[in-house]
Inverse folding.
């Protein structure tokens, strides 16, 4: 996935076509469609008044974690962009073990980092997860950057580390007619204050089962669906561990459900401690669902 990582670093967005089988997309969508069908199109001005949505995706069934959170291709990309000290893809973990990298320590924390090579965080975690159904009509969603949710506390630095990365999984074909998501390639390298021109916008036209991947620093927004058939997509994003989650996964996903998931999925959801922030003493491998230490009264 080095080619995809290089493209994302340069232009802020890439499309991976046909990553998932259409039948897999059908099974995932069928788990969510009853909740979507029970809603009227809405979403307010920001979403053009014509979307339905379901949040807390990874609490809707084990298959969402198995197919999405633990998809090695996407984890390799996330590792390559967010540059964690503790990677999540199998290939990156094996490489790190072979290099005999040192464990987190106070000396590590005092060492200057290079945003191009990292590490830029201890680990990353789910930021938000939502299935969006874009219905006919409405308006284009305003172009925006996902990282804006952290303003004014975090300021834009084109030379600094990326804060987040997002994945849009196509549960149906994305076409120009049904409002495929619009992107402004290269805007991840812009200084704050530069605004996109219409000529700089492209649409993520892609077949069902494909994935659009973009940085939190790139301009994007939903397009107008001009046909009766709805466009269905599933978005989930990762954020650096020292930033708050957009969607609180500890309330979005029941604890007893999380306990049924594989360990890596639990950690990506947010049950992961580090030596610097969110510290919990006595946990093996920083796994916050591990055996808890015993304290006296």
């Amino acid at each position: 996935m080095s080619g995809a990582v290089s493209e994302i670093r340069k232009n802020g967005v890439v499309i991976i076509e046909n990553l998932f089988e259409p039948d897999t997309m059908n099974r995932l969508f069928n788990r969510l469609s009853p909740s979507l069908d029970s809603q009227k199109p809405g979403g307010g001005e920001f979403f053009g008044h014509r979307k339905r949505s379901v949040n807390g995706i990874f609490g809707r069934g084990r298959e969402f974690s198995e197919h999405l959170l633990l998809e090695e291709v996407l984890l390799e990309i996330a590792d390559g962009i967010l540059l964690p000290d503790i990677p999540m893809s199998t290939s990156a973990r094996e490489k790190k073990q072979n290099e005999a990298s040192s464990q987190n320590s106070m000396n590590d924390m005092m060492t200057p980092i290079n945003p191009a090579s990292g590490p830029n965080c201890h680990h990353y975690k789910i930021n938000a997860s939502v299935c969006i159904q874009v219905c006919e009509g409405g308006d284009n969603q305003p172009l925006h950057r996902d990282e804006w949710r952290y303003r004014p506390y975090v300021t834009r630095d084109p030379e600094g580390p990326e804060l987040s990365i997002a994945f849009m999984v196509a549960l149906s074909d994305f076409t120009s007619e049904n409002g495929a998501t619009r992107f402004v390639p290269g805007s991840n390298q812009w200084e704050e204050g530069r605004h996109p021109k219409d000529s700089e916008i492209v649409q993520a036209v892609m077949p069902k089962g494909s994935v659009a991947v973009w940085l939190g620093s790139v301009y994007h927004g939903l397009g107008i669906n001009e046909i009766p058939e709805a466009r269905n997509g599933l978005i989930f994003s990762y954020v650096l561990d020292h930033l708050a989650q957009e969607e609180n996964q500890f309330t979005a996903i029941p604890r007893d459900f999380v306990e049924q998931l594989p360990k890596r999925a639990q950690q990506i959801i947010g049950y992961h401690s580090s030596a610097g922030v969110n510290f919990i003493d006595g946990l093996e491998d920083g796994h916050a669902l591990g055996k808890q230490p015993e304290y006296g009264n």
